[in-house]
Amino acid sequence: MRSERRYLMEHAEESVRLDMKTDNAVTGKQARWAGLAPGMSVIDIGCGPGKTTSMLGELVQPGGRAVGVDLSEQRLDFARQHYGSSTVSFERCDLYQPLTGFGQFDFAWCRFVLEYHLSNCFELVRNISAALKPGGILCLIDLDHNCLSHFGHSPRMERAVAATIKSLEANDNFDPYVGRKLYSFLYDLGFQDIDVKVEAHHQIFGELKEVDEFNWTKKVEVAAKRSGYDFNEYQGGYEEFLEEFRAFFANPRRFTYTPIISCRGRKP
After folding, report:
1. Which of 32, 71, 162, 253 to pair with 237, CA 20 to 30 A apart?
2. What's the DSSP call for residue 71?
3. Are 172 and 8 in contact (CB under 8 A)?
4. Structure confidence at residue 100 (pLDDT)
5. Does residue 178 fall inside a structural domain?
6. Distance between CA atoms of 221 and 228, rounded to whole angstroms?
């Protein structure tokens, strides 16, 4: 299988960004909806800094276990230091390689991972499904229209944001519309009892929260700058775009939202 490419959001503070923006209450609600229950074994695909894995590990007690897998040694070191326990462990792996070395699981969780795998997303989901026992549950959760829905910005910023996302699609294997594809992945793999839920993930208006400011500023500082787009709408290029984005995002009149799509199914 093809090996994973460079992670789009790689930077020194990525573990902190991911940890800050992860809400345990939301994770718990999503996981219970998908069917996670005490006594299950669960694998967290692309576990990052481990906060989600730890929450999943709590939900399967008593009697369950959680394994987080990721390619990044930096994120795994953070996870082991902050969230490792007797029932929660972390392992390094390439998600395109067989996951069977960790055993088979009752439940597989994959959230905010597939958006980084545009050209080979179905291949990745099929590989994840192989780590499930027959009758096991696969839960896929990701965004749709990612980073594209704002109001209150200038026409040139709207054009620049759209062009930046297009550049990330072409150059970095980024998929801003993967959420709408999740159902088809489970359907094509023959999963049963499939269910889908659509909600708002980002819903930002009024005074800006610190976590949203940090999260979105890092997206622009890392992903947008790395995209290869030249920001020709701005005489000052990327730096002028960044300045305008910060001013727009700090304005309490601004409205930003992103749909999140959750899909669960049972392996035959």
Report:
1. 253
2. S
3. yes
4. 80
5. yes
6. 13
SS3 84: coil
Alpha-carbon gap, residue 64 to 40, rounded angstroms: 5
pLDDT digits (tens, 9 = 90+) for 181-198: 999 999 999 999 999 999
How far is the C-alpha of 137 from the C-alpha of 216, rounded, in Å? 32
Structure tokens at 62: 């008593």
Please indicate, yes or no, if residue 29 is contained in any of the structural domains.
yes
Q: How far apart are CA 70 and CA 109, in angstroms?
A: 13
Domain range for 26: 14-266
Element (H, E) at 238: helix 237-250
Length of the chain as a residue count: 268
DSSP string, 133-191: EEEEEEEEEEESSTT--EESS-HHHHHHHHHHHHHHHHHH---TTGGGGHHHHHHHTT-
Is 233 among the domain residues? yes
Encoding tokens for residue 157?
A: 């910023």
First to last CA, the chain: 24
Residue 197 tokens, joined = 């839920």
Q: How many domains does the chain have?
A: 1
Look up residue 184 and give its two tokens: 């088809």
- The predicted pLDDT at position 255 comes to 98
pTM reported for the whole predicted model: 0.96
Token pair for 158: 């709207």
**Structural domain contains residue 68:** yes
* Residue 117 structure tokens: 């795998």
Amino acid found at 73: E
The CATH number covering residue 221 comes to: 3.40.50.150
